[in-house]
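Narrative of activities, Objective 1.

The group set out to show that a structural description can be obtained from nothing but a protein's sequence at a throughput compatible with the screening campaign. Below is one input-output pair from the validation batch, recorded exactly as produced.
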Amino acid sequence: MKQSSFVSKIRSALQSHESPDAWLLWILIGLVTSGFLIFLSASIGLLARDGANFGSVALTRLSATAIGVVCAFIASRYHYRNLRNYSLVLLLASIVLTALVFLPHIGVEHGGARRWILLFGVSFQPSELLKIAFVIYGAAFFSAMKEKVQTISHGIVPLLALLGISGFLLLMQPDTDTFVVLFLSLMAIFITAGARLKHIAVLGLIATIGLGALVLSKPYLKERVLTFIAPQSVDSKGAGWQIEQSLIAIGSGQFMGRGFGQSVQKFSYLPEPIGDSIFAVAGEEFGFVGGFLLIAFFLAFLLRGLRIATRAPDSFSGLLSVGIVILIGASACMNIASMLAIIPLSGLPLAFVSHGGTALVINLIEAGILLNISRYQRA
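Output recorded for this entry:
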């Protein structure tokens, strides 16, 4: 009897007679399709590298895309209000999973960072789940506080607690870029919830001081900043290599690009052609036109997502929409801006495009939640 009741609840949660936002759906289809094609072309560059397996990488990407699309469909049908009920459970589960990266034989170290866990032969990055879990909980908490969010005890203190917990887990790995994106997302939720201007100013000051302290205390961050400020003063084969090769790739693409699959830089020059350097590959192969269209897709996703947030049926869904849009939009902006040398180098992947099965699946789930909210938006 209990099992039958549970099944009926799931079935009821998945039922919806409203259609999702058509514009957002087509934008998402465009991002996933173009991302897959760009990734496929960038992966060919692995053929020139020792120890790289093009077939394995392509199969992993295809599998992650298929899993992500199925999860996005389920998320688009599963009523968003249920996320509010399980927000604390999701938060605690994500914290436990992320903490596992520090355990021997479970956490996996790569490139000096411990950001992955290996369970039952499958590796994944729990910080991706941590981000969306904190956003869901943040939206649930601040929507429940209502006007109390303007007080210190129910506004700025809980936000600092959320940032402190997530910051400890992410900065210990270290994964500074992911923490910056989560910080921006939680700040956007806090501001949208009705935070006081002076509290926002205090948080901005704390963030500035904290970021400065991080840069001074972390050699790899200090090197990134120095490379950004004075690239000629660092070793061209060291910190400045990636950004230099990225600019060469994008510049050689000129207006229309070299053509699909014709990138030269992806073979031996770009350090991470399927990772955080993938926008440079896209710029080389599709030129200014292709790069502009990819940026336009992300901008359209951002604007459409914010439109859904303004027409959301309740405070929780509105705040959740804002959080999701900033999670995806901020990471994409930081990745592209760093490849164009507008900001210091970022290790963030380009959403829906870069290599990373966990990130792709979670990004698609986030988009699915946004589509679900759009089903109930006000006219």
